[in-house]
Amino acid sequence: MKSNYSIFWINLSFQFLFSLSITAQTDWVKWGKADYPYHINSPVQQRDYSFDMRNPGRFVIKSLANAYWFFISDVDGDNCSFSPTCSYFFIQSVEETNIFQGSLMFFDRFTRDMDIIGKPDHYPRVPDGHLYDPPSLYILDSNSINYISPSVVVKNE
Amino acid sequence: MKNSFFIFLIFSSIIFSQEKNYLVSENLFSPSNIKIFADFLFDQKDYLRAADEYERYLSFVPNDTIEFKIALTYSLMNNFNEAAKKFNVISKNSSFYKPAKIEFLKSIFQTGDIAEFRYKYSEGKVNKSYLDSSGMTSLYMYSFLLTGEPLPYEDEFIINFPASERQKIKNFYEWGKDPPYNSQLKAAIFSAVIPGLGKIYTNEYWDGIFAFIATLGTGYLSYDNFKAGHNLRGWIFGSLTVGFYGGNIYGSATAVQIFNAHIRFNFINDLKSYLEDKNYFLKIFN
Question: Are residues B180 and B171 in contact, defined by beta-carbon separation less than 8 angstroms?
Fold first, then answer.
C-alpha cells in the first residue's frame, strides 16, 4: 500500500518535472539577442526616392529632390520646422499646379521658413510638433482653404 | 464600564439595523425606480447613462415625456444627428409634437447641414404660424449669414428678429453684405513695388520683413558678383532674387486669401457664439 503511494508521488513529480523541462526557455532564448525594432520611424526612412517618369518636368524635379535628400537633407537631419517639409512642399506644389506656379509657391514657403520670429505662433501644429502648412492653402483657390486656428493640433494630415 | 459599552453597542445595533422586509419588498429595478435613477443622472449631467436608463424605462412604460427627454439628452451631448432622429419620431398625437418639431429643426441646424435645415423648414409639417411664434423664422434668416450666400434686403431681413436684437443683427448683416476683406490685387501690387509690403498689408509683418531682406540681400550679392566679374555666381544669385521677388508677389496674393479666410472664420465663430447665447432665438424648454 505504502509502495503504491510512493509510486504515485514519484510519477506525479516526474510528470511535473517533465512538463517543466519541455516548456522551459533555454538559456539561448532567455539571454540571446532579441530583434525588437527600437528605432523611431523618421521622415528620412519614409522617403520615396523613386523617379517620377510621368513627364520630363516631373522627372527633373523629383531627381533634384532625391539628390537634395540624399546628399544634404538626410545628412543634416530632420530640421525643417514645417510639415510637409520644404522639399516635399515643392514636389506637392508642382504636382498640384505646374512647374512655374509650384516654384513661386516654393520661394514663398522658403521666405516664410526664414521668419524665425513670427512663424511659431502663426501655424497650427501636427502631433510631432512641426508646423502644419500644406500646399492646398497656396494654390490661389479660395475654396481649397480650410482655415485652422494656430491653437489647434492637426491630427489627420 | 465594559458592560455599559456592550449594552450601548447592542442597543445601537438594534436601533440602526435595516428592516429585512424593506429590502425584500422594494424592487430596485422597478420602472419607477429606473425613472428616478434616470432623472438623477440627468440632473447630474450624466446624459449618456441617463439616456440608457430612460430607454430602459421606455421598454416598460411608453411615455412621450421620456421620448422627448431622451432626444434632449442626445442634444445636450452634442450628438445632433441622433437627437434629430429621436425628436422626429415623437408622435403627432403627443403634446410634445410641436416642441419636438422645433427641436428637430434646431438639431438639424446644429449638425451644420444648413441646406437640409432649410428644406425641412420649408417642408412645413408644422403650421408656419407656430414656427414663427417659436422664433424659427429668425433662425432661418440667420442661416443666410452663416453660409455667405447673397443676403435678402436689409428691411426684410432684420424684421424677422426680436426688436431688442436688431441692432446687433444689423451689424452682422452689414458685415455679411460687405465683409472687410483685403484685396489680392492690392497685396500683389504692394509687393511688386516694395518686396514684402504685400505681406505687411495682410498683417504678416515678419514675413514681409524677411521677404524684403531675402530679395534685397540676394539682389545685392548678384550685383556685387557681376561687378567683381564672377558671372556664374552673379547669375545664381540673380535667379534667386527673381525667385524671391516673384514668390513674394505670389505669396502676398495667397496671404490675402488666408487673411480673408481667417476674418470669415472669426465672424462665423462670433455668429455661432451669439446664436448659442440667444438659444437660437427659440423658446427654452424646462
Answer: no
